[in-house]
Amino acid sequence: MDIGHIAPRRLADTIVEQLETMILEGTLQPGERLPPERVLAEQFGVSRPSLREAVQKLSAKGLLISRQGGGNFVTESLGGSFSDPLIPLLENRPEAQRDLLEFRRTLEADCAYYAALRATEVDRAHLKNAYEALQACYANDTDRDLEEEGAADARFHLAIAEASHNVILLHTIRNLFNMLKSNVVTNIGGMYQREVETRKGLVDQHRMLFEAIMEGRAEDARELAGTHIQYVQKVLSERSENHRRLERSLRRDKLSRI
């Protein structure tokens, strides 16, 4: 029997694997700067030449970008499955918004289910911080920033995705939010208009979802997440229909004045 030699593994390849895992699991996020070379080498317990070689390999794969005098960064566009010209088309099509929310309903229900089952103490602390930041936005009635409320909403849902410990769900959810962030985070910001009932509904839903995940009630978390997205669909659909009715009335009024 012919037995080949086992080649020793290069240290740089082990570092590459570790950094790839950190990128995949979301520890290192798109656009995030890596710690300085000296610090990272100390954390990994490796030499700086080995770390430098690993960074070069990841740069060649398109996972890292090195900036002269600025350090090394995770590539900003990781996970981007939609080309830039397509984004405005999707943002301006009501049917695409509906399809996106239907997709979110399926994904986020699963995220909530697995988060309730798998969240670690670290995940729960992160989720608690995101929830409290969202609550702080809710509490600010005098100087409201609708875009910030929408962004806080997105961060809360991303924290749930991270706690699911499913990297496919995490990167899919993150990509969906990044894709339409110019539209106030997938139209969620449009929910935070001055309607008191809508706002109260969102507050209650996020509270119940947060509690279900923190208490490990997986089936409840799945149902509550799905109900939340269904509520968003309903309110946005009603707002869209009201807008169409107003436009119709204005056209009639304009014609009657001719």
UniProtKB/TrEMBL annotation:
Residues in coiled coil: none
Listed SMART domains: FCD, HTH_GNTR
Key words of the record: DNA-binding, Repressor, Transcription, Transcription regulation
Any GO molecular function: DNA-binding transcription factor activity
A Pfam entry, by short name: FCD
Domain of life per record: Bacteria
Signal peptide stretch: none
Domain HTH gntR-type per the UniProt entry, residue ranges: 9-77
Task performed by this protein: Transcriptional repressor for the pyruvate dehydrogenase complex genes aceEF and lpd.
Protein name as annotated: Pyruvate dehydrogenase complex repressor
